Amino acid sequence: QVQLVESGGGLVQAGGSLRLSCAASGRTYSIYDMGWSRQAPGKEREFVAAITWRGDNTRYVDSVKGRFTISRDTAKNTMYLQMNSLKPEDTAIYYCNVNNGLFWGQGTQVTVSS
d(Cα 85, Cα 55) in Å, to the nearest integer? Predict the structure, then answer.
């Protein structure tokens, strides 16, 4: 089992920035991939970004490329999502997960006002 706790969400104006964190605990030695997904009201959950635990590969959905940066700190067992130039359409609950969705966090709300 891997436990995940997200933090860093909040309310920000359009054009602003936020940094989300996802702290992992438990069997962290089993992690090979971590990622972020989001779910906006009335919409399905969508993939946002992912990174291999080794850090040698990152992937992003097209809508966030150039604005969001995913990273991880293996010493802290923590993954981050730096979100810049936020838009109202980025408003959603952001969830972290490991190993292609094997375990999920509880989510953190991000609200971008126009």
Answer: 24
